[in-house]
């Protein structure tokens, strides 16, 4: 049982690493560093220099939308991202194998492990579609959605293994506020993807230079996204205040509020300091952590005993 729990934790951590790697791929414009899938320039181990390119390398470079030239850094950033995704698949298979013998005693964790494995496979297959569509906006957004589902499925598995689902008494008002918070956060993330699409178009038009101008002439979605963040923060603080006499819930909601503040801080850094590359994956990672923390509280929330 200890092995299963430890493996589930390791898989959870690896899932976050995969998301971080995806964010690095986006912020470094390395998405087409490997312009084919599942191989990279027709090789299982990609080239490290132009001299190692295959004879027909030009057919691969034509698929790129940056400068149609070989960039070893972009290639290996994308390749490491794929390797982490493949490793996550191995972890998912081992997780199912570890639980299959206990599927009757641990039915809920076993079912979550199957869901996780299924989403890992779908995420990998959809990654091929993303490459095929040359990083089309919608395909990238759906790919990110798969990653968030992975995190939530593994979170549910962890909580079910530890018998922590539906174990915390939460009053009806807090539960409704939490659901509203998660819905608002989802809207915020959707607005964030619209902003990202705008940045992608502008950065491509500028040949990925002049980062400080990428948010000039921002769409209305950016203004709403920026202003709406205050509603998210205030709602999380309200839930912390409302549960000030419940130590566990108070700390959980204050942690959530702290994460929201960090998200806002990275957003300010992106806007005021000219879109520094390191802030982009950090902004994405923090948003994912906020969703995870919110769902963690919701999954642990049981019925109000006073009703």
- Counted up, domains total 2
What best-fitting shape do the alpha-carbon axes yield? flat
N-to-C order of helices and strands? HHHHHEHHHHE
- Helix content class: over 70%
Task: Give the helix/strand layout.
Layout: H1 2-27, H2 58-61, H3 72-100, H4 107-132, H5 137-161, E1 168-169, H6 172-205, H7 220-242, H8 247-272, H9 279-300, E2 301-302
Parallel strand pairs: 1-2
Helix pairs in contact: 1-3, 1-5, 1-9, 3-4, 4-5, 5-9, 6-7, 6-9, 7-8, 8-9
Describe this structure in words.
By secondary structure, the protein is mostly helical. The chain has nine helices and two strands. The radius of gyration is 21 Å and the shape is flat.
Explain briefly what this protein structure is.
By secondary structure, this protein is mainly alpha-helical. 70% of the residues lie in helices and 1% in strands. The mean pLDDT is 86.
Keywords, separated by commas or semicolons:
9 helices; 2 domains; two-stranded parallel sheet; mainly alpha
